[in-house]
Amino acid sequence: MAMDDVALLSATEMVARFQDRSLSPVEATKAALERIDRHDGTFNAYCLVDADGAIASARNSEARWQKGTPLGPVDGVPTSVKDLVLAKGWPTRRGSKTTTADPAPEDAPSVARLREAGAVLLGKTTTPEFGWKGVTDSPLTGITRNPWDPNRTPGGSSGGAAVAAAAGMGALHIGTDGGGSIRIPASFSGIFGFKASFGRVPVWPPSPFASVSHLGPMTRTVADAALMMTVISRPDDRDWYALPTEERNWLTGLEDGVSGLKLAFAPTLGKAPIDPEIASAVAKAARGFEELGAQVEEATPALNDAAPIFAAHWFPAAAVLIDSIPAERRNLIDPGLLAIAEQGARMSLLDHLKAVRAREAMGLIMQEFHRKFDLLLLPTMPMTAFEAGEECPVDSANRRWTDWTPLTYPFNLTKQPAASLPCGFAKNGLPIGLQIVGRLYDDATVLRAARAFERAQPFAMPKF
Fold first, then answer.
1. Which residue in 82, 124, 133, 195 is the catalytic one?
2. Active-site residue (options: 61, 80, 181, 189)
3. Could you confirm whether 415 is annotated as catalytic?
4. What CATH number does the domain containing 425 carry?
5. Annotated catalytic, 181?
6. This prediction's pTM
7. Per-residue pLDDT reduced to its tens digit, 373-394
8. pLDDT at residue 38 in the model
9. Is 158 assigned a catalytic role?
10. Which of 157, 189, 207, 233 is an active site residue?
11. Facing residues of 421 across strands?
């Protein structure tokens, strides 16, 4: 196979080929590294690439496959780590000039599980500073660009992971999502992104943004996300918030379809305006689930006041984060992050506790909603990707990234599983994302529905 063809194989295809010896982990790793070398100068998906380490790891994997003794279901698969997540021996810069280049002394849980299962770790992907916004640029690593149009943003904060997935710079990618940071770039970049239920994937150290921050896979196919979940959802005692251990193969039941499920379709949430092209594409996708055997009814949960609730969680957390940075280094920080931290510092404890109670009420609203509906379908984003290097669309009335992401962060507050998957393209050639939200802890049904849609409408990746 040509190098590009190898790089664009799914992880499940790679593993099948490793097993029948028609492909080696070394070949797969070299193909991914070659794509990084050739294209990342344009897109800036990676802030660290450990080519020598990756090749050495791939050679070890190759030897295991030759003996028939792979370490796990992702042995030999080229994989990336978002640079908010610890990987032993590599620095964790978090997109910030305030951090050091000291190597991490240990792996975060997701990285540890992937390493134990034999994944080949390629490097660290870019993030805005401390993952604070819905686009990907930072004082440390500069601007990351969209794989469909380098003049546009890929979204964020897991923008580097999204670009790496779309561009064949690895098959499996760790993303984090504190307000949409997996789903925003999945929508803008045209890949599959899955925000697992809070606590499903162990996290350590805890995110500065606490219980609104989730972790999950970013991939080119739904099956690859399920494969990755099988590994990264395994237990780790360091996460105090983690769900009880549920050892399972997330590929089991993935092909069961949606026949008999009852789905709600919400054209928007509250009064959030949706670009007409996006509204049309997502409505068409929702109707497509009827053809797949599901019952679809237009219904919108009453989450109209999520913005101030989210701000009262996110902005004070940013203030605590900035307070932990020495005063003499704060001039190095992204001015937008400083601005929301200042806003958060002005919020009182009473403001926050009222928001906690309002969040509890939101969770109850969604619990009641899902008594009737198995899943909720809605747009991921109200627009396609806008100009790279901007926090908000140029010439819009938006002041902060939270102003243009009203469809994602409500489901961080409610802790539910949610995915974004491609459901078409706008006239400007940019991808449109469909969001699927599941009952709290019912991650499997979200993945199953996403796979059913993917079978009916296979995802297209950019070609270059």
1. 82
2. 181
3. no
4. 3.90.1300.10
5. yes
6. 0.98
7. 999 999 999 999 999 999 999 9
8. 98
9. no
10. 157
11. 434
